[in-house]
Amino acid sequence: TDDDMFSSVFCENSKKLINIHLFALAAKYYSLSNLGVCTPLEDVLEALRGDNQGTTGIKTDEFMNNKKSHEVQVMSELVDNIANYCGVKQVIDVGSGKGYLSSFLSMQYNLKVYGIDSSNTNTNGARERNRKLKKHWRAYQNRGRANLKSQRLEKAKDRPVESEIKCKTISEKPLNNDSSLQSQDQVTIQDLVPCVFTQIATSETSKRPEVDLVTQTQSDESKHSEEVLAMLNVLPSDAVELFSSSQCNCGELCEEEKAQRKMASLKAKASKLSESNLYFPLTSCITAETELEDIITDLEDCVMVGLHTCGDLAANTLRIFTNKPEIKAVCNVGCCYHLLSEQFENQEECQEEVWGFPMCQYLKDRGWSCGRNARMSACLALERVAVGQMLPTETLFYRAVLQVIIEEIYGVTKSDRHVGKIFSKSSSFVDYVRKSLKKLELDDSKLPDSCIMDYYEKYKHRMNELEAFNMLKVVLAPCIEVLILLDRLCYLKEQDSIAWSGLVKLFDPVKSPRCYAVVALKKWSC
Length: 526
Fold this sequence. Notes:
alpha/beta; Methyltranfer_dom; Rossmann fold
């Protein structure tokens, strides 16, 4: 059995670690990637899309760093497919921060997004960032058009001559055809949503009838219009400057003026057809008891999302999802496990309190607890260490010695204050200690430099031990994360209103260590 296999990892009497090799194997064995409980992202997208294979014209690395670009690009595609599957146009982004995901969902996928964050600073930052995006959006539009053109050319190479003739005929039709845009919506809702979403890993496309010829022709017509509109229909009407007819004085309109008027007309029609391409940053603290109607006055059927929701916010997002009939689906990536509240951490059970862990009844019945040290370990990034991005050993060493000084010199074992990121701002260990003591509001005048350096020299030779200890924590990190994520998944499995729920690996863990999303869809009647 598995227990027998790993029974010799620790000494039976002393409980000390005696076999590091087996310890590492056991940790790998119980990691999420090895347990086989995740649903591949490709399978989820295939089941959600059906025959519709969308394309994205704008790349997020135009206005985000590499990590955030990767996260937003992948997650926004999944959220858009979920929204299409559920037939909704409203998205609630919980813990939206500076609005990276929210603004892209709105601009690129024409979704009406409410970004809610507890920090007014973040909300104001999101508004300012969105303002700047509007200002520079023309450049992104041009690049997007080039991407779409390139994609069409690549597809055209593989099509037969008849298909090319058909495309040419369609492209010569008026681009401001209202019916073609409407038919696009009809195809999306009626033809791309499978009737039942029971087994996500099983492709539904083989079971569905082919779209009739008339509807398919309308869809092809609308795709051309959609590509032209893709970059125009991404902002409120006041965000794109419309062209004035007074710019050309010639009796007969020049080709450039005709094109300008046509683009302006398309924009006006797009604005009338849909008001869903809006982004609203809001400030509010979200808890499990939050009434969304108090925050969003026009709440309708929607999808709730969260990209790296911190601590209890991830758990509360799932609770709100299960309790609100308007929320048809959820896609949540949590982070900051060390900030989770635990029901049984201090062996004091409080029935009325809502806790971040555990969520599922199975672990509640067993009084399961992780503890802060384990939750801190769950935040570590094994994959990054594996590719050579080593732990900041010197930073950890500074922090460990500082704690010894605080306990022995000042008698402080616990404090509500935090040192924060001081290491990078410090010129030496002495400077680090003095800056830290000031932040902790402790008098550093009674502590001479020589005393500080004595502590440094005393523990300097143990730095290798500290590094080895932290490497063991890194190896164990995926196992602790598994426990937290499976707890959330089991909570959803316990709900009668859920049609399907699963864990989906969204991101490259080297770029984004917290890479697993909890995804769930409600039954159609709920």
